[in-house]
Specification:
single chain, 9 helices, 27% helix, two-stranded antiparallel ribbon, eight-stranded mixed β-sheet, alpha+beta, 14 strands
Length: 335
Amino acid sequence: MADTLNLIQNLRGSKGASSRLMFPSNLFSDNTDYVKFSFYKYKGPFSGQRNGSSVDIDGFSSDFIKYNQAGAEYEVYPESKNILLYMPEDISTGYRSDWGGKGFSNITTEALKGAGSAMAGDVGGTVSAVVQGIKNAAGGVPTFAAEAITTGLNAVGANATTNDLLQGSLGVVLNPNTELMFSGFKLREFDLKFKLAPRNDAEARDIREIVGQFKTVALPTYGPRPGGALDFAGNFQGLFEGDKPANAKGKASNANFIGVPGLCQVKFMNGNGLHEFLPQYKLCAITGVEVNYTPDGVYSTYQGQGSPVATELQISFAEIKLVYSQDINTQGASY
């Protein structure tokens, strides 16, 4: 099946694979809180339009929807199962923006004010507004002179700044007029840690499969089938498996490529629905899988089956899409 993800409205209905693994084995009920992991094949964000019908969601611009759905519909990762685990102890999230101080000289400040006024109104008056701003700047002419002298000095290898010249000759520097400026924001990253202690042989086998699936999805594949002109194995297979001597036969390979690892959808659940008081995440890359088979500091296994008494699993995630203000819902499930 294919799911269209990364909008909270669509996240509610995404289901992933039809089969599932659970720990503990009696985890699920109609009002249990738990974490659900679904796994999908990676699809490049520029690989074309989605095959499904167009999405029309009130309150979102078409460009915003296109950003979140870039990469079209995501197909379930081959042979994967949904994984349901108990709520871990440390559930948190964070939203980080980059702000930094930036200095502007008086000349630049006045010029920007003029340009800003022009951009907000009469664009045709931009040039004259900037010129007038420079004239209005305190000490504009002396500063221009200092900058011109510095340029001349640097032309002969002085490696000096305007402030070097002003400080060395006059004991002053330019007023930095520092302002805090927004420069961007970051993709969210988070870790989840689980201590898995089986109570019977069936749970031990489930834990082994759960750990193995996270490792499988997190790692790249060797020699994938990219399709099209790049698919050497598909396009030239006949050259290797035709009517040739046995010692000339071989299997075509896409050895020049490795497949991008799969993706994971992490959902905090309450029964069959999204948990409305915990953070939700857009589709994520698995950036790390740490497995500790001796979490209590002592090697210990069950007699007979040989499975560890406890296994600690820590998974690191990074969202593949940014979270914008429009993604936040103050009245229910939200990113």
